[in-house]
Amino acid sequence: MTSSESSEATPTMGGPDGHLSTRPPRRGPGPVAIVIMAVAVLAAAVFAVLAVRHHDQRDALLPSSIRPTGIPAAVPTSLANLMSLSPIPGHPAPNFTLVDQNGHTLSLSSFKGRAVVLEFMDPHCTDICPIVSQEFVDAYHDLGMDSSRVVFVAVNVNQYYTGVAAIASFSNEQRLNTIPSWRFLTGSVEDLKSVWRNYGIEVEAPNPNADIVHTSIVYFIDPSGHERYLGAPMDDHTASGASYLPANQLASWGQGIARVARSLIS
Questions:
Q1: What CA–CA distance (Å, rounded) separates 93 from 86?
Q2: What pTM does this model have?
Q3: Are 41 and 125 members of one domain?
Q4: Is residue 227 part of a domain?
Q5: Are 183 and 229 found together in one domain?
Q6: Which residues lie below 8 Å from residue 241, measured CB to CB, with a gap of 6+?
Q7: What CATH number has the domain bearing residue 107?
């Protein structure tokens, strides 16, 4: 028997009266104990996974009651959460000058005095851009008499189709031209990339035949030209890959855009 396996007791200070007490030396767990411990750890891990999954499922079923700070009072909390709406520092929106779907040269600063709802779209997009287009059309109708004080603007993110014909065709196909203040803006690739950088828009366009992957975000700009809110559009996909948004969410988005825009002109 080696010294490490000695059965002699080891003296320690541990008694309540301060006298020396004895306890057996610590030994490593035996084979049976190791198996038991492994089973216990595995059971705990499974329980933890199930608990987290249950927690996530429960949270998904419960409506969120957390209200982002600084959201317009006219926007309900559930709607703000649906839109991922958040206030941003009121910095002046970076100005730019581009050409609209009618061939007219316009600058962002020319819209001062009206609220601006600004997005970034691909005129050949078949995914989220048509959904946002429908939301814009709905928002225009929801604004009613206030619609003349709001401008709906999109900047082209497709560097392979920068001509006026491409953005005019998309505007017609998506019925965006039914919005009197609609402006789909394009320009040289250099000018477009400058706008993307200034607004934090990421664009991946490997070739003319590939889908354009880009940041989809809505800026709400007040009549003085300052950025006020951001929203993050959303969509879902069928098993075949087609994009869609449930009708109730689509309508809610339109109402939300209108409510935020109206809060900027009130």
A1: 16
A2: 0.76
A3: no
A4: yes
A5: yes
A6: none
A7: 3.40.30.10
Place of tokens 């709607």: 79
For tokens 């104990």, what's the residue? 33
Could you tell me the residue range of the domain that residue 258 belongs to? 77-265
- Tokens 């993307």 correspond to what residue? 196
Using a CB cutoff of 8 Å and minimum separation of 24, what contacts does 69-75 make? 71/229, 72/229, 72/259, 72/260, 72/263, 73/263, 74/259, 74/262, 74/263, 75/256, 75/259, 75/260, 75/263
Run of H or E including 262: helix 247-265
Residue 201 lies in a domain: yes
**Count: domains in the chain:** 2
Q: Is residue 8 in a domain?
A: no
Same domain, 40 and 107: no
CA distance 260 to 256: 6
In the structure encoding, which two tokens stand for residue 46, read together? 């499974």
Nearest to 191 by CA among 76, 248, 108, 259: 108
Task: Tell me, yes or no, whether 107 lies in a domain.
Answer: yes
Provide the 8-state DSSP code for 72: -
Spell out the per-residue pLDDT of the chain, length 266, in tens. Answer: 443 433 333 333 343 333 333 333 433 444 444 333 443 433 333 333 333 323 333 333 334 568 878 999 999 999 999 999 999 999 999 999 999 999 999 999 999 999 999 999 999 999 999 999 999 999 999 999 999 999 999 999 999 999 999 999 999 999 999 999 999 999 999 999 999 999 999 999 888 888 899 999 999 999 999 999 999 998 889 898 889 899 999 999 999 999 999 999 99
